[in-house]
Amino acid sequence: YADNQTVTILDDRIEYTDGIAKSITIYDLSGVALLNKSNTQSIETTSLSKGIYIVKLKLDGKAVSQKFIKK
Q1: What's the pLDDT at 4?
Q2: Assuming Cys at both sites, which of 12, 25, 63, 64 could form a disulfide with 36, CB separation 3.0 to 4.6 Å?
Q3: How many CA atoms does the CB half-sphere of 8 hold within 13 Å?
Q4: Contact, 68 vs 49, CB < 8 A?
Q5: 19-67: pLDDT as tens digits
Q6: Do residues 7 and 41 touch, judged by C-beta distance below 8 A?
Q7: Confidence band (pLDDT; 50, 70, 90) for 5?
Q8: What is the pLDDT of residue 26?
Q9: How deeply is 57 buried, as exposed, middle or buried, from its count of CB atoms within 10 A (0-12, 13-18, 19+)?
């Protein structure tokens, strides 16, 4: 189970600190996937405009979603 302590939102990337996520996907609020990276610990967010997004991590048999604000 991932919680806020294992997902770190930084200015230029999002990190999963409990190992390797099967995938990390960033969606806009209408549900459109904007960025996706597989078998990773982090994903860069420098290409995103300022706004509110949802990050979804697929882990071993689980999925965790969290809203974040890109400043």
Answers
A1: 52
A2: 25
A3: 11
A4: no
A5: 899 999 999 999 999 999 999 999 999 999 999 999 999 988 889 899 9
A6: no
A7: low
A8: 97
A9: buried
In angstroms, the CA 18 to CA 51 distance is 26
Token pair of 67 as six digits: 């809203």
Q: Residue 43's CB: how many other CB atoms inside 10 A? A: 19
Say what the alpha-carbon torsion angle 56, 23, 44, 7 is, to the nearest 10 degrees.
Answer: 50
> How many Å apart are CA 11 and CA 45, to the nearest integer?
8
Q: Which residue has the tokens 């990276």?
A: 37
Q: Which amino acid is at 9?
A: I
Give the position of tokens 């697929």.
Answer: 58
Q: Is the CB of residue 58 less than 8 Å from the CB of residue 22?
A: yes
